[in-house]
Amino acid sequence: MKLVFASNNKHKLDEVRAILTGHEVLSLRDIGFEDEIEETGDTLEANSLIKARVVADYLADHPEFAVDGVFSDDTGLEIRALGNQPGVRTARWAGEPAVDSNNRAKALRELADKTDRQARFRTVITLIRKGNEQQVEGVVNGSIAMEEKGDGGFGYDPIFIPEDYGKTFAQLPASIKNKISHRARAVQALYNLLQEQK
Q: pLDDT by residue (tens digit) across 107-154?
């Protein structure tokens, strides 16, 4: 199956392609899509759907790509002691321009006087195929570290400790992170959905 993933993020594309074996996954660059998609939804589900619909509409005007469907993701970090913030604002929580180190610093600052450091990462994927819209989700529970640790990964990886591992995502080998991450779980759910539709 040939699918378009509504992203140009190399980290995400590598992770997705490693799981969706047997499927050809194109990026937005591969289909010549250069517009900025405004994520105006107030939930991960809404933003994921917005992105998938915009790209599906673009593909309807470009049949030369002959793809079988489009999917998009939206991911949020939900910190329990902060009322599940940053949630839908995860990427730009500390303000513009969106800088990962600023977002991590804000999380550590806001939790400085909190004993509850429980958090979870959630990824929602929207798949649009043959006019049908479906959503799947991946969740990984964990906690926020007291300080940044590790130099792997990206985003909040240096401060997020997945349940049962005792190390941050940034300290874990990519081979482990790519099996247990929220995105990996969501993409696995997408893979299962695609297998059902074969």
A: 999 999 999 999 999 999 999 999 999 999 999 999 999 999 999 888
- Strands 69-79, 2-5: parallel, antiparallel or unpaired by DSSP? parallel
Cα–Cα distance between 11 and 5 in angstroms, integer?
A: 13
Catalytic residues: 74
- Nearest CA to 132 among 47, 80, 193? 193
Q: Alpha-carbon distance 58 to 65, whole Å?
A: 11
* Global pTM value: 0.91
Question: Which token pair is 170?
Answer: 């940034």
- Write out the H or E segment, with its range, that includes residue 116: none
Closest by Cα among 17, 71, 45 to 184: 17
Distance CA 83, CA 98 (A): 21
